[in-house]
Amino acid sequence: MNLKLENIGIIRNADIKLNGLTVIAGENDTGKSTVGKLMFSIIKAFNRYEQDLNEGKSDRAFELIEKTYFELRKEYDFSKDTGIRREFYPPEFLKELKKTDDPVSIIDDKINFLYGINATGVIQHLEKIKSLYSNNESKEDIIQRALTKVFVSEFYSELSPKNYNLFSYISISEADGLNNIFNLSIQNNKIKSLKLYDDLFFNDVTLIETPIFLQMYDLIRSASTLLDMENRDRKAPFGRTAPNIALHVKDLISKLESAQYYQILQTYIFNSDLQNLLGSISKITNGAGFSFEKEHRDFYFNKDGSTYYKSINTATGLKAFGMIQLLIQSNAINERALLIIDEPEIHLHPKWQIEYAKLIVELVKNNIPVLLTSHSPEIIQALRFFSEQHNIRDKTAFYLTETEGVMSNIIDVSEDINKIFVKLAEPLHNLVWN
Fold first, then answer.
1. In a domain, 303, yes or no
2. I need a surface site. Which of 141, 208, 227, 288 has the fewest CB within 10 A?
């Protein structure tokens, strides 16, 4: 799969292949992480808009039904007139809409009911529901709205280059651009056009930004995402501000938590090689691995089968391997789910950087697509070495970010990745020799 970008954030141009292991190297603040967050946004919007983005017709109808019901309850005594409650009780109302082939007529009947009791103040909600079921939205409309929501969550709608009135373009294709999947244009952080030609190959995505999230379970689970722009400034009870987090953080912690069902899920994991990788992780970390303890609302590291450590008391490097272990156990890693890892070396000693790179190549060897960003010579060299050792060099691509004024280009250096090492060694070279 090919991803082409033009004027996205600080990225001027990029043409990136995502066919196995994709490595983007470069300095800080050159757009490496933007690529990962962008791919997360696109895949979620295309394939998970109903499950993760609350874009299902029933979900939006139910919100409006609830508004109608609670406003009526403030004005009318349901104990005296049970007909109102029976007509508008949200679960039953939604059930009626799902069972019928003509939901519009059901809504019209309820609108007439409201006129009959002179409750015209809430009719606006029912008209919106009617419009929802009357209009057959195109898939493009739904995905465009889903993309808008995810861009808010991941970028706070800051995708357009700062201080430049430039159009931004995103396109995905197959077969080196021969088969278009979709084209998207953006101006002033608003989607101007979206053209769909086919479905994406990826049907899910996971983004690992930092292993520290493992010790922040309670905070993350209690937070909300920034998907609903209308509720971005909502307040929690008693004046407390409700915390907001990016969707990829909530998505990650949910998948890690589901590893608690591993004994059930492993029945459905057909790739035995992935399960064998759990043994490799155990050898690296010299422990039995991480597990989620529901009663304690925390992840624990099992050192020797009987000694457990809370996640906050566990080395961050251990948590880095633990996240991969938990994702395998939760069945969140497969050949159609892109795994995005942002600068994993930050919490890893050089020895474990090598081991981590070996683990990543093992995943790719088992057809797990990985997009990884890094500025570590050790991890990049190890990725090259192991990809050659395991004969997946044809599925591996290396890219380097190069600044051009205030923006940057992402160039393919797969045929000469020494350009990466020269770039990353430049600060030390200047320090020693100048």
1. no
2. 141
Residues 6+ apart with CB under 8 A from 142: 49, 55
Q: Tell me if 260 sits within 8 A of 292, measured CB to CB.
A: yes
Q: Is residue 189 part of a domain?
A: no
What token pair was written down for 140? 């493009």
Report the percent of the chain where pLDDT is more than 90: 70
Q: Is residue 230 part of a domain?
A: no
Identify the domain containing residue 110 by its residue range: 57-134
**DSSP assignment of 59-86, as one string?**
HHHHHHHHHHHHHHHHHS-TTT-HHHHH
Q: Does the pLDDT value for residue 310 go beyond 90? A: yes
Residue from 343, 334, 404, 371 nearest 16 by CA = 371
SS3 113: helix
One-letter amino acid for residue 425 of the chain: A
pTM: 0.85
**pLDDT tier, 243 (very low <50, low <70, confident <90, very high otherwise):** low
DSSP 330: T
| Domains: count for the chain | 1
The count of other CB atoms within 10 Å of the CB of residue 172 is 25
